[in-house]
Amino acid sequence: MKSLFSFYRHIEWLHLFSYIIIIVAELLILWFISGTPEANILRYIVLFGAVSISILLVRQRIIKPIQQMTQASLHIASGNYQSRLPSYNSIELNQMAQAFNQMASHLENVEKQRVALIGNVAHELRTPLSNIRITLEGLIDEVFAPETEIFLDIQHEVSRLQRLVYQLERLSEAESGQIPVNKQWIDYAQLIQTICERLKVQYESKGVILTHELSPNLPLIQIDPDHITQVLINLLGNALQYTPSGGKVTIQANFDGKQFVTRVSDTGLGLQADDLTQIFERFYRVDKSRARSSGGNGIGLTITRHLLLAHQGTIYAESAGLGSGSTFTFTLPRAV
């Protein structure tokens, strides 16, 4: 809106400049009438020069920048998101150019993310589909015997596809801001204990210890229990995925008088500095080979962040480096 007002200010300036030219022209005409024919030749030259300079100034100050903006807009509309505007001497025009360049940069980033998303989805689909195709071809050619184990492998790959589709649907809802939030007053300590009990078998089968340290007398919290359950399962599942046998995962929760603070710490792989800044980006994986073999696709933490944002919460990751484990901390207001 500010840029639009600046544009109108330039149009008003152009009108004022036109009026000045008209007044000068009228004065020159009066000058011509009162002069001799020989003197009028010089006056014509002066008038022509004045008009030419005026047109040049108007073009340089107003028309040329508008033409540049129009051309750059057409480039953006055609998909050339690298198009940018130069700086101008006019403060208002320069503000418009900066706003345009910011918009172009944003559109360029969105396009890069779109291309990356398509590539990542295709990559995630390719592996399970290839495994299913190879297995089915083996069954058709009688290379594989139709045993229960073979069909369980197919079922496992189909489950991976279903999980990916489900998470993509949730991600789409999250990034479009369409997450329905049905808040209830919940016993937060009981919720954490229930989730830990649910994941107990998975942790025991891998040989990883899961413990919880909850502050006594935690108050009730107003949240969507389904969403926060998914947040906790995502974080505890992620910790299990990157913690080797013999390791330990601890979930802590307390209330500081304003908000709930929950920490999920593990003694696993750990994170590098670059990981900490990108860990919540979609399809980002710390250890791609390990994540893929365990069914991870780099979407869970992105969904986790959006679910917490829908509750006006925050989340961040900490780690002392590779081999030092990591801690994910998220906050939630008691009520919104």
CATH homologous superfamily annotation of the largest domain: Histidine kinase-like ATPase, C-terminal domain
Strand content: 5-15%
Q: Strand order of the main beta sheet, please?
A: 2-4-5-7-6
Poorly predicted residue ranges: 1-11, 289-295
Helix content: 55-70%
Query: Which structural class do you get from the secondary structure elements?
Result: alpha+beta
Counted beta strands: 7
If classified by CATH, what would the architecture of the largest domain be?
2-Layer Sandwich
Q: What is the average of the pLDDT values?
A: 79
Q: Give the CATH level 1 class of the largest domain.
A: Alpha Beta
What descriptive keywords fit this protein?
single chain, 336 residues, alpha+beta, Heat Shock Protein 90, 3 domains, five-stranded mixed sheet, 13% strand, extended
Structural commentary:
The chain has 336 residues and is an alpha+beta fold. The protein has three domains: 2-106, no CATH class; 112-175; 184-333, Heat Shock Protein 90 (2-Layer Sandwich). It contains ten helices and seven strands. It has helices spanning 2-33, 37-77, 91-140, 148-175, 188-198, 200-206, 225-241, 273-278, 288-293, 300-310; strands at residues 184-187, 209-214, 220-223, 248-255, 259-266, 314-318, 326-333. The strands form two sheets. It has a five-stranded mixed β-sheet with strand order 2-4-5-7-6, covered by helices on one side. A two-stranded antiparallel ribbon has the order 1-3. A hairpin with a 3-residue loop joins strand 4 and strand 5. Helix 1 runs antiparallel to helix 2, helix 1 (2-33) packs across helix 3 (91-140) and helix 4 packs parallel to helix 10 (300-310). It starts with a helix and ends with a strand. Mean pLDDT is 79; it is low at 1-11 and 289-295.
